[in-house]
């Protein structure tokens, strides 16, 4: 739109100068008829300017509406892409939350306290197993006191159990003191 709003008339005489050229009878005829009055008023420069401005304004609005409608399909595609991206974003957030839960679970399972409990439990199991083996040996030794095969089998079974007990206990003691140098 290149036109400006209609300029204001400088004086009434300039605005309706075309009426001065009319006779009294023509003026009375115009005053008596609404249609003729409207027709004569539309000859005024400011009225013509206003009509031209209004026509340009309507044309500009029409062009703007056409441009807006032309962009509607692109806007729909962009909205669809955004919806897809939002869905991917929320799916990624869910996956990250799941991974974070797994990380926290792993951190709990491998924390110093959890490892200490596990080491102590394994040491207790090894101690119980070695005590059970000792009880079995004592029961079999009373039945056959001089059987070297029984003694050798006992030593072969009992020694690894006691070694495991002592290793687990030593690791638990070091861990409880904050020394983690034994960890691989």
TrEMBL record:
It is found in: Endosome. Keywords: Endosome, Protein transport, Transport. Transmembrane segments: none annotated. Residues 93-184 form the VPS37 C-terminal domain. Pfam families: Mod_r. GO terms for cellular component: ESCRT I complex. Signal peptide: none annotated. Its main location: other. The keyword Glycoprotein does not apply. SUPFAM superfamilies: Endosomal sorting complex assembly domain. GO terms for biological process: protein targeting to membrane; protein targeting to vacuole; ubiquitin-dependent protein catabolic process via the multivesicular body sorting pathway. Belongs to the VPS37 family. This is VPS37 C-terminal domain-containing protein.
